[in-house]
Write a structure and sequence with these properties.
Number of helices: 13
Radius of gyration: 27 Å
CATH topology of the largest domain: Arc Repressor Mutant, subunit A
Structural class: alpha+beta
Shape: elongated
CATH superfamily of the largest domain: Winged helix-like DNA-binding domain superfamily/Winged helix DNA-binding domain
Number of strands: 15
Distance between the termini: 68 Å
Strand content: 15-25%
Mean pLDDT: 80
Length: about 475
């Protein structure tokens, strides 16, 4: 079968991108889940989208490919290209343009038989289709919001949905597409604006369209493009949980922005790999909007196997430090759990949950003891006490404590010391934040002694690295 750049199954592409370019740096010989031919085809397909960002390093085990992106030089997430290469048959694409050639205006309203006759007269005799095929295609477009179905007595009438003028929202869409969950939706809308601008420039002096653009009537309704990932801000929680994720960006300077795309934004910390999880996230948002259970496949890095879980999605947490995304859900063991979105696939919507609101409220109560994404039993919380030195004129340190703490309390214990106290489900999640105060910490006490000992060992190791003789090991009491 000849190689094609188009995609039939995005999950296969997502798996390759994740294994080789996100977690990665694997050679061909280290990946044994697919055949060598499949590996070569998928690598070439990905290279056709991301070729300018792909690099490789020669090792003893072979050539390792990876992605290198400088956020100063891009105006759009390059991973979005993977979502714009859906495969289609000759019949699909022909019927698509034929429908919108006939229904070129929302004012044109036709029955199925009338629409069939119009398409028959438009197309050559070599293209054959029946009313059943056309009805299914129209139903699909109606679900997407780009076709309107009306009933007039016993007749079913089809028309094109009204477009919405978004020409004044270019900057909003540019920003949305790069920072919002499911930002690929904004990218598609930006493409539409670019296409419309090009279409207008190609119009004839009398206002008619050139023949090159006469088939462009199949653009989607902007209202309904957004409806696929309908979401409430309550469903999205920014977090700063630490992980070993790959950051693919660097600093930013406005002079280096790709001005050809017209974007006014560039990003210093831009986590682009979440784009390949957009479909999973949109499905989870849809389940939350409908307050429904889902079945999904969850991959375990430990066992290297996937298992099917039945969950009630409640919220999605997104790290502002590394871009990692977690689903917080209620599972079949009657517990709240966190699940990485990049390990989730094949989300299927199930029945509504009668107790969704009650469980969402219960999660909100647990959030008062969550630093990151771990939520456990209230009876097994871990207590953390952190004493910080604050000198004269250093009130900004206290302000920082107040601003950055996600739970717990702060009290002044003397003229130069403040104490942060918190009860959390997992004190390990605080360690990266605690380390940022390392020159000011005078006392650290944790009910989980393993966490406290780990911090002390880290300090000793740092002294050993920088002083050679072990340094002053009494700095932290």
């Amino acid at each position: 079968m000849p190689y094609s750049e188009l995609v039939k199954n995005f999950e296969k592409i997502r798996e390759y991108m994740r294994e080789f370019y996100v977690y990665g740096f694997k050679s061909r010989g280290e990946y044994n889940q697919k055949s060598a031919r499949s590996y070569d085809d998928e690598r070439r397909r990905i290279e056709s989208w991301l070729g300018e960002y792909m690099r490789f390093a020669e090792t003893a085990d072979g050539r390792n490919y990876f992605i290198s992106v400088d956020s100063r030089a891009i105006s759009e997430n390059p991973f979005y290209k993977a979502w714009k290469t859906k495969s289609f048959t000759d019949g699909d694409i022909t019927l698509h343009f034929a429908i919108f050639d006939v229904l070129w205006s929302p004012d044109i309203k036709l029955t199925l038989a009338e629409l069939t006759d119009e398409i028959d007269s438009l197309l050559s005799s070599g293209f054959d289709f029946d009313e059943s095929t056309l009805r299914k295609k129209l139903k699909e477009y109606a679900d997407e919001g780009i076709i309107v179905i009306e009933k007039r007595g016993r007749q079913v009438i089809y028309s094109r949905a009204h477009d919405v003028d978004i020409s004044g929202l270019r900057d909003v869409l540019d920003f949305f597409s790069e920072v919002a969950p499911c930002g690929v939706i904004g990218s598609f809308l930006c493409d539409k604006l670019t296409s419309d601008r090009r279409l207008n420039s190609d119009k004839m002096p009398d206002g008619s369209q050139s023949s090159d653009n006469i088939l462009s009537g199949g653009s989607q309704s902007n209202d309904n493009i957004l409806s696929g990932s309908s979401q409430s801000s309550d469903n999205i929680i920014p977090t700063s949980s630490q992980s070993n994720g790959v950051q693919l960006t660097s600093g930013c300077h406005s002079n280096l922005v790709n001005s050809s795309a017209g974007s006014v934004f560039c990003f210093k910390h831009h986590y682009i790999t979440e784009a390949i999880d957009s479909d999973v996230m949109a499905s989870l948002f849809d389940a939350m909007r409908k307050k429904s259970y889902v079945l999904l496949d969850n991959f375990s890095r430990r066992s290297q196997k996937s298992r099917t879980l039945r969950l009630l999605p409640l919220k999605i947490y997104i790290s502002v430090q590394n871009g990692r995304q977690h689903l917080i859900a209620y599972n079949e063991n009657s517990r709240f759990g966190s699940y990485r979105l990049d390990y989730i696939s094949n989300v299927r919507l199930c029945e509504p949950a009668a107790d969704f609101d009650r469980l969402r409220a219960a999660l909100a109560k647990k959030e008062t003891r969550m630093w990151g994404v771990m939520c456990g039993s209230d009876a097994r919380c871990e207590r953390v006490e952190l004493d910080i030195y604050v000198g004269a004129g250093e009130e900004y340190i206290v302000n920082r404590l107040e601003r950055e703490k996600r739970c717990g309390s702060i009290e002044k214990i003397d003229n130069t010391h403040y104490r942060y106290t918190a009860e959390v489900y997992d004190s390990n999640e605080l360690l990266p934040w605690i380390r940022t105060f390392i020159s000011r910490i005078t006392r650290l006490k944790c009910s989980n002694r393993a966490v406290e000992n780990r911090f002390r060992e880290d300090v000793k190791e740092m002294y050993h690295m920088y002083q050679g003789d072990g340094g002053d090991t009494t700095a932290v009491q």
